[in-house]
Amino acid sequence: MKRKVTLKQIAKELDVSISTVSKALRNSKEISEDTRQKVQAFAKLYNYRPNNIALSLKNRKTKTIGIIIPEIVHHFFSKVIRGIELVANKRGYNVIVGLSNESFDKEVINMEMLANGSIDGFILSISKETLQQQDYHHFIETINQGMPIVMFDRVVDAINCDKVIVDDLEGAKKAVSKLISSGCENIGIITTRDYVSVGKLRTQGYLEALEEHKMNPKASLILKVVDQLLSEDHLDSLEKEVESLFKRNKNLDGIFAVNELYALTAMKVARKMHLRIPEDIQIIGFTDGVLSKHAVPSLTTVSQHGQKIGEKAAELLINNLEREDEEDVYETVIIETELIERESTK
Amino acid sequence: MKRKVTLKQIAKELDVSISTVSKALRNSKEISEDTRQKVQAFAKLYNYRPNNIALSLKNRKTKTIGIIIPEIVHHFFSKVIRGIELVANKRGYNVIVGLSNESFDKEVINMEMLANGSIDGFILSISKETLQQQDYHHFIETINQGMPIVMFDRVVDAINCDKVIVDDLEGAKKAVSKLISSGCENIGIITTRDYVSVGKLRTQGYLEALEEHKMNPKASLILKVVDQLLSEDHLDSLEKEVESLFKRNKNLDGIFAVNELYALTAMKVARKMHLRIPEDIQIIGFTDGVLSKHAVPSLTTVSQHGQKIGEKAAELLINNLEREDEEDVYETVIIETELIERESTK
DNA sequence: TTTCAACACGAAAACGTTTGCGCTAATGTT
DNA sequence: AACATTAGCGCAAACGTTTTCGTGTTGAAA
Asked: Which of A20, A208, B48, B142, CA to CA, is 20 to 30 A from A290?
């Protein structure tokens, strides 16, 4: 078991100084052709690679990006990571992942762990708990220490930084407009509580779409699901809530659900009530996950292009990191949504 | 924008030496109560945190684990990561992720990037391309340099290291036995080419189960799908292959599919051919992903417990890293599979 | 022969820590 | 009063790099 070879070892072996070895390897012309070749041959033989940690310490940059997401077992976030990874690697960066599990404390702890030199900047999506508590001091402190942050998807106005979001409002409008133009007259929405910004915006898009088509929103058509974070019977209670939405609106002929799971649940309930999709009721979801694609009937959905979001976020961050001048102009990039029409709509 | 404060700055500010500050913060009793308090107060005020990179350099360990997986947009791998992250964080480690995208070259490059000091050890699942080429020199070199590796799911005998696998053979047997005991007499299998070890083992399990029940395997019942890595029309060609399986076996009444997607495709084809599930044909998949749970009818499946795999892998690695004695005894842990019965079987 | 570049290399500092050891002054012991 | 102990602190090395600034040797020009 031979440990990794260092400059010092090469130097000793070849009876030259460390500086000479370093320069020889970097093709400095201070070094004679002779020694340069000798050193390089030796280095190749022993498979020398500079120690990243030492370089990080010296350069005061790690070439590593920290990602904090609320949950990894989730197609959207996986896709975002893939996007980040893609451009990060292309530009010589590594990616280190922290999971907040939708918890404020874990978010803070994870960020603290990474902020002490391990990474050059953050890409993150805020946990639900943090959004509820509206405590953003850890973001502010991080930024104040000179470490840039890019937020995506779940962002918050209070923090001044680069952001990548989808046009939730517009996406929702597209979806609802589609339902309307396909003949729906009583469209229900299944959404989250308002503190999740994306939920709020999508609800707003729903309302605006109705308004544009001179349709009156009815309170009974709006279902704001209370989400008990990931509990086991969450699915059951969700189903019950959706069922009551169906029951109190006998003439329901369209559903806009702000995520995939809600949409699938709606499909399930519709089936239970012997409604045909899309003949009797049409359904559109949000988030282009794998469920929508393989559902039966397959689900028309508003795609968020998670990978593109990740790519863009990584670009913003790295550009910021590598920018010479220190001017802080923050950008908010909006990734267009796309309505993917499948079998659940006419 | 105040940069992170260092020992040196505190020392200068308080007019003591760096060593004094360091010792004061670590509660060394070499330092007087007086200065200790002074230093600690100052440190707290300026929110001092030791620089991880410097510590890594000094201690020659990074407290970071490198994960290399073929694909992240995949429930199984996400769950494994979650498991790893869980125990890693609990034991004070961070997690850094590299994606091979099923490519040999990317696997090698990623490992090289991480191996030069960035991490203390690897947890990985081998890419398909690597398995095909059977070129494992990068694993061997890494291990030879004293960096431990834990492999999971897709492992290979040629490499001597800790491994965490599911009992693919036994899991497959469970599934097929279930089909048999539910009355199936003509059971088809949809599997991968043999170079993917898990595919091979599951096929073997299928055969053994048949044998145990005195049933003769028929070549026409075995479909080994050629997987053109992630191409767009992969789904189409997959569907055609499955369809021909159905057509050449008119009396097919059971399907064992080695992954979720194959199982779903089988369901789709069955539906197209007007076979009722589970009355006319029963289907079982492998991998407990989200698709199986939400499919209609929901899919009976062999669960692999991805999270548990991740947890175990992290434990093995960290135990190895923190072991004092240098004896190399490698373990292969088998995680039991579990048959989750849902609606696609009787 | 002296002077001066050019050449080839080495010493040392720096990045931020931790820690063994040595030093000084004060205190305690005979 | 002479000596030993100890508390309290600083020096310096080490981890592995890169880079600036010397410095000694050579060869050529004067």
From this structure: A208
